Task: structure prediction
Amino acid sequence: MENIQKKKNIMLVPVDFSEISLNALHHAALVAKHFDNDLVLVNILEDDFLSSVFSFSKNDTKDELAKEALLHKLNEKASEIKTKYGVDCKTAAKSGKIYKTIIETATEYDCDCIIMGTHGASGVERIIGSNASRVISYSTVPVIVVKNDKNPNAYKNIVFPLDLTSESKQKVRWALHLAKAYKSTIHILTYRMSDEFLNNKMMANLNQIKTLLSENGVAFDEKIMDNNDDFASVTLNYAEAIGADLIMIMTQSEDKSIREYIIETYPQQIVNDSGNVPVFCVNPNHETFKSEFII
Result:
């Protein structure tokens, strides 16, 4: 019979050679090595930046020259990754709006996730934060947001915030994949509600997820807070207290009609204030799910 080789999973890493983007690359390389995945490294020149550098309107010649230089640097970085981690990397230098080009590149290379670095959202860093927000909001694949070079060779402790939205339960599919791969413990964090009907619904959601984790042999524990006055702060404090390696969040609710809000208050606060803990972001507006997803 013909030997059909299974497609390798591919992860996209935007690289602008800043310390934060190189931290994300280090993180992605360790994850890719763990699963024998490939990486695509992309650098994006914004059109406005090109115009300012060359002091006149953008033209194709200058654009290509700039991209050639960046591609050379990317290839050097890809070679380093191959030598250090044994991970194969494709490279791409593009121009355009950063967040749109990242998403387009992920589609072009059929990537299974995006791993990117981001600052918080203060001062000049708001620009970088804004690009990350838009990638998170519009991506059809999960986005892992990384801020430092903490060794991600094991997502051993995963914080799993649970609320009443149906989208929150969608995360369990991704949690199962990660937990099985890393032999992780899923730390479910939820809260009691004053309304008895809603609280019963919340507890039913919790029990459903616990059953699913048990059936799949995944270790878990639960923490039920008395209220949800500031669930984002509670989540972040809890993640820090248990030494979490990852926080899993949904980035929108399905009935969100105004996309210009980018990501809602809770996930935005989690991404901005998560400190050293990477954040795994899933956009529930898209039902894309690959059963072979293994990151």
